[in-house]
Amino acid sequence: MRVIAGKARGMRLTAPRGTTTRPTSDRVKEALFSLLDSAGRLDGMRVLDLFAGSGSLGIEALSRGAEQVTFIEKDRHALESLRLNLGHTGFSDRAEVLPFDCLQALERLVRQKVCFDLILLDPPYQAGLHQKVIELAGSALLAADGLVVAEAAARTPLPERIGPCNRSDRRIYGDTALELYTMEQRHAP
């Protein structure tokens, strides 16, 4: 695992011990950030990295110009890797690490009335959390022009609409799908 582009380009990242996390492949990460870069979606953005694991996605966002990233991860080994990676890349000062269960952390952020321009999530595919997390994050934490990017199993598409979010794009890379959601556009009467 490495940082692909930006200020920390080429830096190696530490992966957590054990099998409780599944790091995003460099191929999928590169495709995701090419999409975001081409849309001008990273400069100065506030990013939420859910199920952060080693922090690879959020660190890539920081390297490419995100202003701040909030990482949510509960696994002890993943947290250890995440903190090491933030220190190694020099991004600790632009990162917040919440060592909680995802839903607990989301509820905490909702109470704090925090808003994010980009929400990245890569939950365990079989956990059935995609819809619940997208609905909660989209309805309470996503900026009006924000974007939710969910990594999911390619063979099981997520719904076109989840809560206030509509799927705007779906890209498949082998067994992995990137599903992009934006807020439903409300038109004035």
- Unreliable spans are none
Proper CATH architecture = 3-Layer(aba) Sandwich
Mean residue pLDDT: 90
Integer-rounded radius of gyration: 15 Å
CATH topology description: Rossmann fold
Portion of residues in beta strands equals 25-35%
Please provide the ordered H/E string of secondary-structure elements: HEHEHEHEHEEEE
CATH class: Alpha Beta
Instruction: Tell me the distance between the termini.
Output: 50 Å
Describe the structure.
- InterPro entries: DNA_methylase_N6_adenine_CS (IPR002052), RNA_MeTrfase_RsmD (IPR004398), SAM-dependent_MTases_sf (IPR029063).
- It comes from Trichlorobacter lovleyi (strain ATCC BAA-1151 / DSM 17278 / SZ) (Geobacter lovleyi).
- One of its GO terms (molecular function) is nucleic acid binding.
- One of its GO terms (biological process) is rRNA methylation.
- Keywords: Methyltransferase, Transferase.
- The structure is a single chain.
- The protein is an alpha/beta fold and 189 residues long.
- The model has no long low-confidence stretch (mean pLDDT 90).
- A hairpin with a 2-residue loop joins strand 6 and strand 7.
- The protein has a single domain, classed as Rossmann fold (3-Layer(aba) Sandwich).
- The protein contains 5 helices and 8 strands.
- An 8-stranded mixed sheet has the order 3-2-1-4-5-8-7-6.
- Helix 4 runs parallel beside helix 5 (130-140).
In short:
This protein is of the alpha/beta class and 189 residues long.
Question: Key features?
Answer:
methyltransferase activity; 8 strands; alpha/beta; 5 helices; nucleic acid binding; Rossmann fold; 189 residues
